Amino acid sequence: MTEPQPDIPVHESLAFAGLLTMIAGGIDAYSYLFHGAVFSGLQTGNVILLGINLGHGDIAGGTRYLISLVAFMLGTVIAHGMQKHFGRKPIRVSVPQLILVYEFALLLVVALTDQLVPDFISTAVLSAAAAAELQEFRRLKGRPFTPLMMTGTLRALTEGIYDGVHYHDRASLRRACNPIVVLACFACGVMLVTLARYVAGPLSIAVPMVLIATAMLVLCVKRQRRRVS
Predict the structure, then answer these.
(1) pLDDT over 70 for what percent of the chain?
(2) Whole-angstrom Cα distance, residue 86 to residue 103?
(3) Phi, psi of 39 (to 5 degrees)
(4) Which positions, given as ranges, span the membrane (predicted)?
């Protein structure tokens, strides 16, 4: 599939979107596996689990999901504030780079304090990290995109395949490749953290951290090449 790559920022490319969804899937898997079955990014799941717990009369059990929801909201506010503040100033790094550094720092805090603080604190920090990624990276090749929630991606895939097959629309079939890659990468991120769990335990948070570092490096190299050219 060919796209007018010069017109597409690297952080809106399909390869970078795949990297972002692997990060998001890894963070969600980590928070779910190690911190009380709470999602850091999939807040729809937390709302459902909150409702189930409240329906069972387990208010204490539902609190951990509410904390994640509130932390996600606060994380969105912080990331949005960073976008507004640094987006108007000439800085040496781009806002996407800055958000990735911030996300990496939050995961590093969790890695260093994992055994020292209660689960709800770790979950809150992870939720803030997930919120930052969602707030900054919302476009794929100029189209709406989310690295956290796969429901819309699955809908886009189904629509693209249907239009491509039923109406013989080759453009729709080509576009369907995007959600396939996104869904596969999200599942891959979840799988990598799950497998790492058996080897590294809580240190499996290193998986999304390495992926974030890779994304930071990609943006840094691209920015440096642009300066040289």
Answers:
(1) 96
(2) 16
(3) -85, 140
(4) 64-81, 180-199, 205-221
Q: What is the per-residue pLDDT across 37-80, written as a single tens digit (0 to 9) for each?
A: 999 999 999 999 999 999 999 999 999 999 999 999 999 999 99
What the block records as the tokens of 140 is 């794929």
3-state secondary structure (DSSP) of residue 140: strand
* Per-residue confidence band for 6, with pLDDT thresholds at 50, 70 and 90: low
Q: Count CB neighbours of 174 within 10 A.
A: 14
**Beta carbons within 10 angstroms of residue 200's beta carbon:** 13
Beta strands in the chain (DSSP E): 139-140, 143-144
pTM of the model: 0.92
Chain position carrying tokens 């429901």: 151
**Running DSSP on this structure, what letter comes out for residue 2?**
-
- What tokens appear for 132 in the block? 């930052």
Rounded-to-integer distance, Cα 156 and Cα 153, Å: 5
- The pLDDT assigned to 5 comes to 47
CA distance 94 to 182: 24
Question: For the structural domain made of 10-228, what CATH number should be given?
Answer: 1.20.1250
